[in-house]
Amino acid sequence: MVNRDHIRNFCIIAHIDHGKSTLADRLLERTGAVEARHMIEQHLDSMELERERGITIKAQAVRLEYDAPSGQRYQLNLIDTPGHVDFSYEVSRSLAACEGALLVVDAAQGIQAQTLANVYLAIDHDLEVIPIVNKIDLDVAEPERVADEVCQAFGFRPDEVLMASAKDGMGVDQVLEAIVERVPPPDGDDALPLRALIFDSKYDPYKGVVAYVRVFEGAAPAGSRIEIMSSGARSDALEIGCFRPAPTKVHALGAGEVGYVATGLKTVGDAPVGDTLTLAVGGASSPLDAYQPLKPMVFAGLYPADGEDYLELRDALEKLRLNDAALSFEPESSLALGSGFRCGFLGLLHMEVVQERLEREYEINLLATSPSVAYQVMTTDGEVHEVDNPAKLPPADRIEETQEPWVNLTILTPANFIGAMIELVTDRRGELKKTEYIQHGAAHGVTSAGNGRAAGRPGVSQTRVMLEFAMPLSEMLIDFYDLLKSRTQGYASMDYALAGYRTENLARLDILVNGEPVDALSVILHRSMVHPRGKELVTRLKDLIPRQMFEVPIQAAVGSKVFARETVRALRKNVLAKCYGGDVTRKRKLLERQAEGKKRMKRVGRVEIPQEAFLSVLKVER
């Protein structure tokens, strides 16, 4: 075990695409953790989905051995974190295991909304923050201006800001020296009983639950019997090791070190993220302050396209939940789709990633319903229910009031897109709370860098504005982020946080196909939007539902009141094709027999609704 004075635990935080993973690559190269012949771009983004989308989804830990100019060898434990707002829970878990953070800011784009949010998270965790202006090799880079605004935004001194190009490797040595000099060594005592924070985990079919841990006190020797403090689950540690970046066995993990423990546990709930791991004999008496996982904000139904895959889907969700603290699910059944699960996510990107992982890694063909949020409904008998599924909304005569979640939304945008942003949010029932102009050399409060790319683009203002809104979370679910980017030519960025609940006039929109309500197409909307949305949905479904041998009415209704209808015309077989000549009564008899058959078919016929119909609920014309 290494002397704690020579250990540094740090993470990298930044907005999306500001160069976190590329900087991690250079640190791996410079410290010799990965040989040059084995080096690939975004080395720590090992998931196929991460490499395809160019984003970090899972936080990754790696141990680096750094020989400082003084001749002393240091153990640097790096945790690479995601930048997308949906995965901020990964960032907060990583921060709990560190003493320092590298703040990476793009020298062309400057500070973005998620940069602000991540820095405040780091400050809340009392971490030493090292600011780095990255991508200084770009033609449109303005490193001096961006560094000046980073200092004004967060109170750094100019000599504390490092200049680097993670792509070319410029400034990487200075970054390593700053980590050693500025990040404090971890506290802890090897003589105390073992207390290790589980900050992440994954499931291995041979080793069971593999817990990623940061040891705060004591030591975890190989082969020891361990205990998970909240569940009381005990097991022998099958393997103890660290990431270099491949998993590597070690004899023990001491106080201050980061590594993994293969617990051998098979039950998902036995080793939850944020729990404390200790020794079964002579262990700690009290756990560490538990990490509180974020509550899911978006809910959707996931159903297997083939009903026989239900058990496989359940097993796959259990394994995914093991290393995704924000994923929740419970069984549900739908008349239209059969048996499936109601799943909770942090956002739409999180939902997309989970769905793609289920389809790729577990080869399950899925049907997904339209996403919704969790409403708080007070019934006339005084009880409060949390409703995350529109089908579970009580009848209108039993509802006293309905509250929906609202968020505080921050948008950073070039000044000439203010009107477009205010229109976008207010069209979705949002309220403007604050406008703050941010210019180069601004001397007030929280500031942000001017957009370097925008500065060199005709018609795009260099002055940026920070807009703060309050808006319903449900209005952000569908197309909001895409419209935000398209209306600002890609220059705006956003961050949001749950603000609480407000009482609103809401109603459930039901879609009836062939007279039967399709529960998977039901949505809860503000009453002012029910009629236009219902008419739009039935029009779209008319084109998506295939024609049958009988007429299929598609209706939109609130309660028992139908207010919109479209009809899918029946296919008609030409029963007169073989009827040549003869009396007209022969033809009439054939047509009447066909009409009788269609009536009987309509009574017993079932309309198959394609997946495109459920996806249509996700697309809104605005």
Word description of this protein:
- With 622 residues, this protein is α+β, with helices and mostly antiparallel strands.
- The chain has 5 domains: 4-182, Rossmann fold, CATH 3.40.50.300; 195-279, Elongation Factor Tu (Ef-tu), domain 3 (Beta Barrel); 298-368, Alpha-Beta Plaits (2-Layer Sandwich), CATH 3.30.70; 399-504, 2-Layer Sandwich (Alpha-Beta Plaits), CATH 3.30.70; 508-616, Alpha-Beta Plaits.
- 25% of the residues lie in helices and 32% in strands.
- The protein is built from 14 helices and 31 strands.
- The strands form 6 sheets. It has an 8-stranded antiparallel β-sheet with strand order 11-10-16-7-8-15-12-13, with helices on one face. Strands 2-3-1-4-5-6 form a 6-stranded mixed β-sheet, sandwiched between helices.
- The longest helix is centred in the last third of the chain and has 21 residues, at 584-604.
- The chain is globular and about 110 Å long.
- The relative contact order is 0.09.
- Mean pLDDT is 81; it is low at 42-47, 49-57 and 440-456.
Brief summary:
The protein is of the alpha+beta class and 622 residues long. Helix content is 25%, strand content 32%. It has 14 helices and 31 strands.
How many separate domains? 5
Measured between the Cα atoms of the first and last residue, the distance is 60 Å
Give me the count of strands: 31
Strand content: 25-35%
Sum up the structure in keywords.
Alpha-Beta Plaits; 622 residues; Elongation Factor Tu (Ef-tu), domain 3; Rossmann fold; six-stranded mixed beta sheet; eight-stranded antiparallel beta sheet
